[in-house]
């Protein structure tokens, strides 16, 4: 399979970068090809604007969005890596999602979150999170994020099968971080094929 990893972190020495590298190493160990979209290094513009609403208006230019869509088009699996910020996506990832997975390209109706205009692709969320797993479970954050992202977002994207891995305690001890990187490698190595 061809695996696209979309990474959001400006610091090349961050844990998120290490997670993306481990995931891609796992995918390559399983003989998949890996492509990285490093949104900060590539200076992607995440700001949704009038051009996104009316791409046919004079001066509108969505060539950056088209380039991202071409990347997705050649991928059989898509993995998003970003640090959990305020129980949500950091602005760069949010803008990439908002702008690239457009109405008319990714979806064209709102009544069925399982219907997409895109062919099925395997979908993965690998999310470093500072909180501990017991806190995330007790407060219901994990279930809320699963509903919003796995059902409400990846469903519309046509990503299937799909999974979310919260890498809890990402700011913890070295052994903890090593275990989370090993988990990221395994997720890459054991990627299932897209649904038929
Ligand atoms: C602005 C900001 C908001 C954050 N919000 C959360 C949060 O809501 N839940 C959580 O578990 N961790 C939160 N964190 C912690 C980050 O998820 C954690 O620092 C990150 O995963 C570490 O990865 P990195 O080294 O790649 O930055 C937040 C950190 C920052 C800077």
Give an overview of the whole structure.
- This protein is an alpha/beta fold and 196 residues long.
- The chain has one domain (2-189): 3-Layer(aba) Sandwich (Rossmann fold), CATH 3.40.50.
- It is 39% helix and 18% strand.
- It has helices at 15-29, 50-53, 63-73, 91-100, 133-138, 141-151, 154-157, 174-189, and strands at 2-7, 33-38, 77-81, 121-129, 159-168.
- Strands 2-1-3-4-5 form a 5-stranded parallel beta sheet, with helices on both faces.
- Helix 1 links the parallel strand 1 and strand 2 (33-38).
- Helix 1 (15-29) packs parallel to helix 8 (174-189).
- The protein is globular.
- The chain binds flavin mononucleotide.
- Flavin mononucleotide binds next to helix 1 and strand 4.
- Belongs to the NAD(P)H dehydrogenase (quinone) family.
- Residues 1-178 form the Flavodoxin-like fold domain.
- Pfam families: Flavodoxin_2 (PF02525).
- It comes from Thalassovita autumnalis.
């Amino acid at each position: 399979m061809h695996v696209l990893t979309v990474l959001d972190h400006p610091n090349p020495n961050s844990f998120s970068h290490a997670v993306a590298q481990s995931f891609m190493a796992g995918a390559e160990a399983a003989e998949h090809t890996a492509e990285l979209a490093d949104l900060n290094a590539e200076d992607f513009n995440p700001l949704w604007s009038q051009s996104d609403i009316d791409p046919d208006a004079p001066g509108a230019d969505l060539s950056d969005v088209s380039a991202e869509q071409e990347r997705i088009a050649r991928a059989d699996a898509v993995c998003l890596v970003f640090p959990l910020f305020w129980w949500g996506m950091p602005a760069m990832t949010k803008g990439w999602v908002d702008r690239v997975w457009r109405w008319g390209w990714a979806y064209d109706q709102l009544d069925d979150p399982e219907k997409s205009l895109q062919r099925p692709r395997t979908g993965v969320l690998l999310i470093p999170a500072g909180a501990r797993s017991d806190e995330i479970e007790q407060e219901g954050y994990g279930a809320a994020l699963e509903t919003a992202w796995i059902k409400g977002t990846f469903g519309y994207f046509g990503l299937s099968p799909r999974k979310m891995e919260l890498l809890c305690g990402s700011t913890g001890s070295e052994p903890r971080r090593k275990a989370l990187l090993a988990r990221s490698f395994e997720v890459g190595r054991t990627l299932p094929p897209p649904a038929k």
